[in-house]
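Forum > Structural Biology > Help requests

Title: Can anyone predict the 3D structure of ITB1 protein?

Hi all, first post here. I have the sequence for ITB1 protein but no way to get a structure on my laptop. I'd be grateful if someone could post the structure tokens.
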Amino acid sequence: AGNGICKCRVCECFPNFTGSACDCSLDTSPCVASNGQVCNGRGTCECGTCNCTDPKFQGPTCEMCQTCLGVCAEHKDCVQCRAFEKGEKKERCSQECMHFNMTRVESRDKLPQPGQPDPLSHCKEKDVDDCWFYFTYSVNSNGEANVHVVE
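Reply #1:
Sure, ran it for you. Structure tokens for ITB1 protein below:
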């Protein structure tokens, strides 16, 4: 494959290449997702290409998910039960919804604003009583999820 030399009908690969034809790159940089993880933590890097182990995810770095809910919809039920003690997960809240730190704020203008170092999603969702509630969802560099919800 141009990545080694042939000796006695056997390929001897240059550094960072392997395989019977030296066609497998050991360089993992093409597999690094935007979050810095190899294959977004959802696959393995084989020959410089991600092999996604989670079937929902696809793409060159396992970041695309056509069937996934957005961040807001995904966390809506847990925010609702933690903040207001109601909603679909009310009975299972302490088992299923303790994966984020929660901070209550008085009003929407007290929510974290764009420009902070962590990726931030602003959310507006309807609760079980058909009322709007507002929250932000962010993940810091330590992988901790933080939710700020308007009382």
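The chain has a mean pLDDT of 88. The domain at 4-64 is CATH 2.10.25.10 (Laminin).
Shout if anything looks off.
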